[in-house]
Amino acid sequence: MLQFGACEGPMWPRRRTGRGKVGAMESDALREAVLAAVRAEGFELAGIAPAAAVPAVREAANDALAAGRLAGMGWMDPAWLERATDPDCFLPGARSLIVVALPNHSPEPEPGPAAGARGRVARYARGRDYHRVFEKRLRRIARRLREEFGADARATVDYGPLLERPYAELAGLAWRGRSTMALLPGFGPWVMLGVVATTLDLPADAPIRKSCGSCARCITACPTGAIAPDGGVVDARRCISYHTIENRGAIPRELRPLFGDWVFGCDACLDTCPVGQSRFESCAEFEPTGPDEAHPPLAGLLALTEETFLERFRGRAIMRAKRDGLARNACIALGNVGTADDLPTLAGALHDASPLIRGHAAWAIGHLANRCAAGSRVRPVLERALTEEHDSSVREEIRLALADLQDEGSR
Ligand code: SF4
Question: Rounded to an integer, what distance in angstroms lies between the CA atom of residue 37 and that of residue 142?
């Protein structure tokens, strides 16, 4: 889950069906019947929004795009944003959007027995891939709307093109927090959202009249200063979630020390939100299956091959980072939270087949050595790597690491 919009991906097929099966059913009765079908799929949190375009949201997103704040999310071009803010593009003839949410705040598991430095995975990605958890249920709801209610229907969970958060607000489920997250009363930002668009004309819920007031905890908690000083805008170019999940290239060097132990996503702005501090039950499928899913040993992530990555993370949101992205993130986290014992692991990563990983391993060796007063120990390792390296981007990373290296006597 990213803080600034939806991901590209496959969309479910939509089918047009005849209308009129519900005939003269009163609209309130129709709404109740539809919500009963939604609850039957386990969605206790649900609201209905009118399927109206949200041009103000589109304009704000276009401004963010023009200012470069959407970073490398190239699919969010003006045409995509036009479609994602107009339900009629998503489902021609759409009259209503049924917005559903599942709570996702599993408790922190006890650390596992494995020794060594560990990374941290955002809560939403610790259990089953939430797209899969939603997909089957939303598909069944859409099918019932077609077959039992004679309406057209189409569902989405994050794939788009339909931005879910503005419609969660219109559906009376949430208000927009300063961190840009949808905040649900009692749950805060700890929910995952899905939408079913339908041609049924259902009475809508009233939006929640609430705001964050003077609270700015998310802004001060953000390690990279990605949230605008007044809130409401996240700059993806500085956001750990964006970089660890979506960025396929090098992480900006100046941000790397600020990533801490995050290897997939970041919950810093969510963790601090007072709206989500009450206790509630999470959807069981979002629970991690073990401590290593929440706090994976970093050396283990660096040892993953393409095959073992697929084997371990199939059916999990982490797949989106791909093996190289996750190993790159593990290098940064090891540089930030590892100990001198981790230097040999990073030295091994200097021989990885991926230049992306070799370059980040060089940075991590330099950063970790400076933290552990091991500069003179790693200098020959980096110098040798420089003589053997042919990739220009990796050579530059090694040169910069050597230039920043502090020998013990110089500290
Ligand atoms: Fe992004 Fe983390 Fe900052 Fe939130 S706290 S905006 S997820 S970097």
Answer: 10
Average pLDDT over residues 326-331: 98
Q: What confidence tier does 358 reach under pLDDT thresholds 50, 70, 90? A: very high
Does 233 contact ligand 1 (Cβ within 6 A)? no
pLDDT digits (tens, 9 = 90+) for 165-207: 999 999 999 999 999 999 999 999 999 999 999 999 999 999 9
| Ligand 1 atom 1: residue of nearest CA | 239
Mean pLDDT of all residues in the chain?
89
Look at strands 262-264 and 175-176 and give their pairing: unpaired
158 is catalytic: yes
User: Is the Cβ–Cβ distance between 165 and 193 less than 8 Å?
Assistant: yes
């109740």: which residue's tokens? 32
Domains annotated on the chain, with CATH: 27-113+124-198 (no CATH), 297-411 (1.25.10.10)
Q: Which pLDDT score, from 0 to 100, does residue 7 have?
A: 33
Alpha-carbon span 236 to 4, nearest angstrom:
7
With a cut of 90, say whether residue 310 has pLDDT above it. yes
Indicate if the pLDDT at residue 235 is higher than 80. yes
Residue 22 confidence (pLDDT)? 58
Mention every residue, 6+ apart, whose C-beta is less than 8 A from residue 35. Answer: 46, 48
Q: Which residues of 149-161 are buried (b: 16+ CB within 10 A; e: fewer)?
A: bbbbbbbbbbbbb
Whether the CB-CB separation of 260 and 223 falls below 8 Å is answered with yes
| β-strand partners of 88 | none
- Choosing from 86, 152, 158, 352, which is the catalytic residue? 158
Q: Is the CB of 266 under 6 A from ligand 1?
A: yes
Question: In sequence order, what are the residues at sequence separation of 6 or more whose Cβ sits closer than 8 angstroms to the Cβ of residue 73?
Answer: 4, 5, 236, 242, 246
- Residue 401 CB–ligand 1 contact under 6 Å: no
Measured in Å, residue 273 CA sits from the centre of ligand 1 at 12
